[in-house]
Amino acid sequence: MTYSQVPKKWDGEADVIVVGGGNTGIPAAITAHDKGTKVIVLEASNGMASSLAMIAGGTPFTGTDLQKAEGIEDSPDKLYEEAVKVSGGDPELWRALADRQEEVYEWLKSLGAKPEKVLLAPGHKVRRSIKFEGHGPALCNILRNALKKSGIDVRYKHRARKLIVDNGRVIGITAESGDKTNSFKARKAVILATGGFCQNLDIVKEFGPQYADLVPTAPKTHQGDGLKMAMAIGAGTDGLGLAVCPSMPVGAETLQFVNAGIQGGITVDRYGKRFGNEATEELGTYTEKHKICLDHDPTGLHITVSDQAIKDLNEPPSTTTREPIYRVDTIEELEKQLGIPAGNLKATVDEYNSDIKKYGYDRKFGRRLQGMYWPDLPVMKLDHPPFYAVKNKICLTSMKGGLKINAKCQIIDQFGDVIPGLYAAGEIAGGLERIPHHYYTGRMTMQAFTQGRIAGDVAADEPGS
Ligand SMILES: Cc1cc2nc3c(=O)[nH]c(=O)nc-3n(C[C@H](O)[C@H](O)[C@H](O)COP(=O)(O)OP(=O)(O)OC[C@H]3O[C@@H](n4cnc5c(N)ncnc54)[C@H](O)[C@@H]3O)c2cc1C
Fold first, then answer.
1. What is the pTM of this model?
2. Would the CB of 60 count as within 6 Å of ligand 1?
């Protein structure tokens, strides 16, 4: 059965049912609640299993107090134009995000989020990526506390399973809790905010087989439940199967080392050889990086090597906290520790340093600059011990595409019509990116917060039954 029958008896009833209490679901729930609607949140885990807790970068916002204090000129229009160009995504969806995100920033601050720094993020032309104090975990706490304070009815350990449809309209949803299946009535709408499907190998194999061997680092509850439920009743998709595949230190699957690594050094393979210009958009950022690394070595293994001078650059300009994994006094020692054939890495570094000294740039791959985080800084030699290295691999963190929605976050079916009573927001929703190897950095958290607010707002205004 593609959807559940209308039950004889409901186990719970609200105007709006929000499925998934994460980065998107909580803003959606609070927004709808603040408009006077009764909301129930169904959350599969016993708390909040949000990938917001794991974020490595900042979240882009325009017109912020931090930008103003530093004299950075920015606007929703600038963000919109840039985002549509870089992402190839649906202009209508981007317009809605660009127009709403400034309000979302203020709303987050009103909940207690403390903006700390404004940084340049890959793919952006303007410094607008906001790093909040305490980063992802603090933002999760802030959202969780706001949810608790709101008094909204939250049903933890309730894994939503099937939509309930009557006369073509979504009127509720079933959820498993222990060995019981409960039915919840949604008088106005159901908002799906269940995140992506990185952790469901069957769906990954079906829609993004090229990612099937990558290590998924999203929360275990990113099983694609919402996607399946909506597709089962005819929902369309947009960019389904496109993914964000960043380079993460080996061990990142334990999420202990998500923020480890150093930007700005050289990248070598398991034999100590460079295989591209690390300062280009391609190898220097998410864009194309996974493809280049995987084309070079199907396991995706690659090693970043830096020295003290480069490590010193990493705080504060780059967005992440960077802690090295290998720290040694000589390149020869690094070869030993990394298991690189003796002499290989030394030859690579010697050639690189010698080119920069003689010609001012690296002739092998034409690297002239330090890279994305330092767009104007000429390339630096690696000759300030100690040396640092991090072994990385390409991981699967999030899905870039998903359900087809319109600017109001209403789900669109296979024939282009709105499915009455059904919304999707956050990572489950597609349409913002359509270029396979590009990623407009940080937009996923911005999308989650902002589409959550939009979906909550619009769903609360539905006439209701
Ligand atoms: C390691 C890592 C690093 C990242 N770094 C960045 C970054 O730097 N910048 C950026 O913008 N983005 C980043 N992302 C992506 C970003 O964090 C996510 O896209 C975003 O937080 C997703 O928000 P969401 O609300 O859609 O999902 P989540 O916040 O993950 O919430 C989904 C919720 O739905 C629940 N759920 C799932 N299925 C069900 C069900 N059937 N019934 C009930 N509940 C269910 C889950 O338990 C979870 O609580 C990163 C992701 C990862 C994994």
1. 0.90
2. no
